Amino acid sequence: MPSTVEQLSPSRVKITVEVPFADLKPNMDKAYRDLAAQVQIPGFRKGKVPPRILDQRFGRGTILSEALNDALPGLYNSAVTDNKLSPLAQPEVEVTKLEDGELVEFTAEVDIRPDFDVPSFDSLQATVDPIEITDEAVEERLNSLRERFGSLEDVDRPVEDGDHLIIDLVARRDDEVLEDANVSDISYEVGTGRMVDGLDDAVIGLSAGESKKFQSKLVGGPLKDQDAEVEVTVKKVQVQDLPEADDEFAQLASEFDTVEELRADLRRELSQNSRIEQANAARDKVLEALIAEVDVEVPEGVLKTEVDSRKEQIESQLAQAGLTLEQYLDEIASDSEDDSEDEDEPKDVESFWQQTEKRSADALKAQMILDKIADDREIGVEQEELTRYIVRRAQATGSTPDQELQHMLEHDHVAEYMSEIRRGKVLDLIMAQATVTDGNGETLDLASLQSDGSIAQPADDQVSDEEPADGESEDVENSPAATDESAAATDEDTQA
Fold first, then answer.
1. Residues of the domain holding 382
2. How confident is the model at residue 344, as a pLDDT?
């Protein structure tokens, strides 16, 4: 099947394909069979109507149209493969010649991955924050564990900061109760500020059975951000009774005999989690460095499609939450606990959409680069790798591997999943050669970290004869490491 390629721009081509009419015979036969099975013509059994009768009744053009619709996707894909092209979008197809019984010609204009150079992986450098596990962080984790085993005890006294309450809230405007702004028997911890403004000040000093009115803005529902008079009624005042952080608690809450052993294990967990976070940050920064080194632009049409899709998704999510984009940005600003200026934080609607477009461009550029490396190095995907990927997705979504497999097949995600796996494998190759240091100047050994954040032990024949002296241990808190998870390079981290 002859085909030619005309380069319209560095990232767009026009493919012209000539198809001998004889090659369309299977598609023509199928078109006749399908039409014969759908119609009932007197004198013929259903499904047995001869082609000449169908031509007379429905016109030869109808059959040709159906046959071409069936044949063109496969013919287009063959031309793409034969010419070693890498399409980035759906093609614009046009049948330019149709000589019945002789020849069919069609063209397909499509955006493709342009040619570009990729730098040497060992030239890439990135710096990430060092791992610091403080005693305060360990105690916070221990206190969280104690809270799981604690209990709430009723107290007969006025409310104090830190108490746990059972309350009712009734909102009114002009003495009329607002039906969509009332809650009953809700739990609240004084001082957390998790509900309406002014609630903490209102409940301090109240006792069970007492009420107080105050002015505030509603925080949810159709009347969100509307001024209202809110009446709070305290129904219970409770204090949290936590078990002592001692050996008895360690034996109750864990497999350890002493609380110091429990603290050491919590420190280990914090270290492992921090290593995973540090490794993910390293992967992001190395990918950013790679993107910055590659001189290539995302095709305008591909970028517009991606930005429009993200914009539609964001607006849909905001609509479901009953928010406008302006309200969403105001909430981000008010919820921020960092008083310092964040240059990356969008300040208004215009900057938000500008940031969305930049993230989309970076994500698409990353895909192009990783896919090119995978193609150049002929990196494939084994069945085992696809199975592991499906299992990980099932764990992340709370489904079963069988359900995730069914979802993949029903929604035709096979190619998408395979691409994500390939990109992850490429990023692993890059990370193995890139240089990553932490803020203390330590070079991270990105090949030693396991998926749970633990450090892989060296093989016996590589272990040094020198054993650590009694009382000495490896400083696991600052051990350089990286995760072996092959997360997709462009998904969640590029979402607005």
1. 259-298+352-461+472-494
2. 66
